[in-house]
Amino acid sequence: MGVSFPIDIAPDCPFGHHNIPFGIFSTASDVGLGNQRRAGVAIGNFVLELDVLAKHGFFEGTTLSRPLGDVFLSTDLNAFATFPAADRRAVRTTIVENLTNGSSALYKDDALNTAAFVPLGKIQMHLPMTITDYTDFFCSLVHAENALRLLSLPVPQAFYEYPMGYNGRISSIAVSNTDVVRPRGFFRSPGTDHPIYQPTQQLDFEVEFGAFLASPVEAGKNVTAREAEDLIFGYVLLNDWSSRDIQKYEMHPFGPFHSKSFLTSISAWVVMPEAMSNCPCRAPPSLSSQISPTLEVDDANHGLHDVQFSVKVSRKSVNLSLSDRTLTIEISGKGAQDVDIVRSNLADAFWSHYQMIAYQSSSGCGMSTGDLLGSGTLSSPPDKIQEDSKVAGNGCLAEILACKHILPDVGGRPMQWLEDGDGLTIEGWFTAADGTKAGFGGVTGLVVPAVL
Ligand SMILES: O=C(O)/C=C/C(=O)CC(=O)CC(=O)O
Ligand SMILES: [Ca+2]
Ligand SMILES: [Mg+2]
């Protein structure tokens, strides 16, 4: 038997028995269906092929409103997302019940076991959904105060009244591990009086939380925040890579344009809301302001869970030596140094995804299965970051610089903007239903030089 019961879950593994995130993967040509994209769930160090379960009748006893058919052979999770929330929950429950039952055919039938489990090391992950629209919001008051202070601007009154947002570009969205090609744009370098088209010198990240919409919202129909829960298919980590010099120049008087449209990375695994159903929530601070009834949520059910984010930069040290008129630059071959620079928490946001969905629909704006809603940069107040004072509570470098927070050196150099060769990973962890730690699996990117 390739995978025996109980599946070993290492303490630092994000994919325990009560997380079960969904994703789209492919394998090498000699493994299973090879390079065909298909759906799976992550468990321990494996992906469980969902079509193999479906074809072996695992969901026949599951009450569903319509047959699953070949839904798990789709190249995205959109078709599965259109099943009613009760169906999606029932499918997930069946998977959990089988994985946690030593007498399931999953563990007893050798051929099935071999076909169903594929080691994570043998797969390639793809975008989990075909993304139909993308909005990026501005939901953290801590971030808004710090970012706007840098521009000597007050937080606008509207911030407290609804979740502010801007329309993003779907073409910018890529799955974790996609390289970050340094973007080029028009901006003024210090000391010049006109903009020059050049690679950004102020490349930044933004820690965000994304939600995928399951069911469409017809144009003209207003969804209230209390109705939004069942519309959410699942959550991903999102990094809204940003160029601050381009942004500073272009955002007068419009919103962000090229400064945000070169890349937005998301984690590959979509965590279902049910995985977080027992994870603590804190009532969103927006409830204490004057908000429209359509944006009101229940104190105990609003989606602002205790999800702990961290950011790690990986940078190689550079040794310079000057001998005999020759300058030698050596990138340390001893591997990169990893440094934690940020820790923040979803529970510190001002607005939740339920409220973002309600606000998005409030104008009569239609929404589709596969719409992605980013939370905006997520920061936490400094008093929450007690364990390690070197780590900032700010969800991006611009804000860390605005707060004059001194980060530890990385690769022997001060940490300012992202450099070519830097790797950056955002992780997110929460408490799953069985009390174990569960995670998103990270969203990572390597910065590579601009294409000139
Ligand atoms: O107006 C500002 O200060 C900044 C706006 C943004 O950077 C847009 C954005 O991505 C918002 C966010 O991530 O919170
Ligand atoms: Ca953003
Ligand atoms: Mg971006």
UniProtKB/TrEMBL annotation:
Q: What does the record give under GO molecular function?
A: fumarylacetoacetase activity; metal ion binding
Q: Does the keyword Hydrolase apply?
A: yes
Q: Where is the Fumarylacetoacetase N-terminal domain?
A: 18-128
Active site feature: 143 (proton acceptor)
**Could you tell me the EC number(s) of this protein?**
3.7.1.2
Q: Does the keyword Hydrolase apply?
A: yes
Q: Which part of the chain is the Fumarylacetoacetase-like C-terminal domain?
A: 137-428
Q: Which UniProt keywords apply?
A: Calcium, Hydrolase, Magnesium, Metal-binding, Phenylalanine catabolism, Tyrosine catabolism
Which organism is the protein's source? Answer: Rhizodiscina lignyota
Q: What is this protein called?
A: Fumarylacetoacetase
Read off the PANTHER family from this record.
Answer: FUMARYLACETOACETASE
